Amino acid sequence: MSVHQSTHLKRITTHILQEMKKRKEKISMLTAYDFSMAGIVDAAGIDMILVGDSASNVMAGHETTLPITLDQMIYHATAVVRAVERALVVVDIPFGSYQGNSSEALRSAIRIMKESGAHAVKVEGGAEIRESVVRILSAGVPVMGHLGLTPQSIYKFGTYTVRAREKEEAGKLLEDAKILEECGCFALVLEKIPAQLARRVAEAVTIPVIGIGAGPDVDGQVLVLHDMLGITQEFKPRFLRQYADIRNTMLEAVGKYIQDVKSADFPNEKESY
Ligand code: KIV
């Protein structure tokens, strides 16, 4: 018996993303970590949803992405996948779940795919994680790379400033991008690097390059949903465009509700049985 998708919507696949790059159609990507938000983002027509380990910051309130666990990532991913009908869902393999060795990397990727129903995983790094990337890919799991500012290595970098401004680091990044493409990654994220370098990378590889703080000359863009909606307020890097002011909208709505409860205006007769 064959199983068909229940909707008329055509699901985004890694193949479709490749085609989009070929015809120079920009790819849109946002993060989501829960059922309600993922449903809205998907209904709006986003191409890819990233269940990012930024959940560690925006959902759990940690300072870095390091503390989030594989179980927690799978919990978020499962909720997102339940809501999504069209977008390709990519899940970050969290810190400490793939760097040890390639067997551990494969086990983590398989757990994410099997338990959440996601469509791909993302890992941070280049040549140094090559073996893990190859091993995950050999199991048939699509892998997205992530180069430039890689937040899981924040304690090595020491700061969240722009990466690869120097020739040597820029050269390594370009090499890493080619290595990840050769391994078979279906796409790459480039975070917080000079726009000119990002353009060189996007031209040098045939796989889609998705930028965050990497300028306009890449194949698509990704932002953290809570940042672009104005839910988080303290994080305002230059690359962030804020599309709404949801924190203040919520503050106003909750404030009004509190007032109505205190004044016994809510509930009224129509709102009672
Ligand atoms: O975890 C995340 O949200 C990310 C994006 C910043 C690309 O990796």
Overview of the structural elements:
- Its EC number is 2.1.2.11.
- This is 3-methyl-2-oxobutanoate hydroxymethyltransferase.
- Catalyzes the reversible reaction in which hydroxymethyl group from 5,10-methylenetetrahydrofolate is transferred onto alpha-ketoisovalerate to form ketopantoate.
- InterPro entries: Pantoate_hydroxy_MeTrfase, Pyrv/PenolPyrv_kinase-like_dom, Pyrv_kinase-like_dom_sf.
- The active site is at residue 191.
- The chain contains 11 helices and 8 strands.
- The chain has helices at residues 14-22, 35-43, 55-58, 70-83, 102-116, 130-138, 154-157, 167-183, 195-204, 225-228, 246-262, and strands at residues 27-31, 48-51, 88-92, 120-122, 143-148, 187-191, 209-212, 220-223.
- It has 273 residues and is an alpha/beta fold.
- Strand 3, helix 5 (102-116) and strand 4 (120-122) form a beta-alpha-beta unit.
- The chain starts with 13 loop residues before the first helix and ends in an 11-residue tail after the last helix.
- The protein is globular.
- Helix 2 crosses helix 4 (70-83), helix 4 (70-83) packs parallel to helix 5 (102-116) and helix 8 (167-183) packs parallel to helix 9.
- The protein has an 8-stranded parallel beta barrel with strand order 1-2-3-4-5-6-7-8, surrounded by 7 helices.
- The protein has 2 domains: 14-242, Phosphoenolpyruvate-binding domains (TIM Barrel), CATH 3.20.20.60; 245-272.
- Residues 31, 50, 52-54, 92, 189, 191, 212, 222, 224 line the site of 3-methyl-2-oxobutanoic acid.
